[in-house]
Amino acid sequence: MGIRKRMQDTTISPEELADELLELKRVHDMLDDLRKECNKLTNTAAAIVNFHWVKRGDGEPIRGEISIVTPRIVTEVVPPKPGTPEYEAIVNQFAGSLHEVFDLSWRKLRDQVTVLNEKGEPLPKSLQSLPSKDLYKATCRSKIGEF
User: DSSP readout, 32-64?
Assistant: First the structure.
């Protein structure tokens, strides 16, 4: 009998259900650890693919036997803490007098900084002094349909 059906079974004892719960928790934790490890490996592979893509210099996607990978370097700006002068300068520059009404979206700001970097344009003055780091991303597609 499947786990879901066992949970719906009115004859299952609380003790048996407690044991099922513990096993589910263990499986959940193992899968979560596996997800985290896959995420690390994916990021490492994307960084290596990006390195080779930049070294090749043609700007074309990388085509494997079963995949097409389009590398992209995203610049992550480390935001200052709210309430600091640096934070206020950024908010004022992008939201102007309406900054009390709008929240600053760091994801959108990151995307804008990435676009400026890709075009070779200078960053706005309020962002130039902030620490930043490059994140190596890759869009992957299968050449042979879903897998």
Answer: HHHHHHHHHHHHHHHHHHHHHHHHH-S-PPEE-
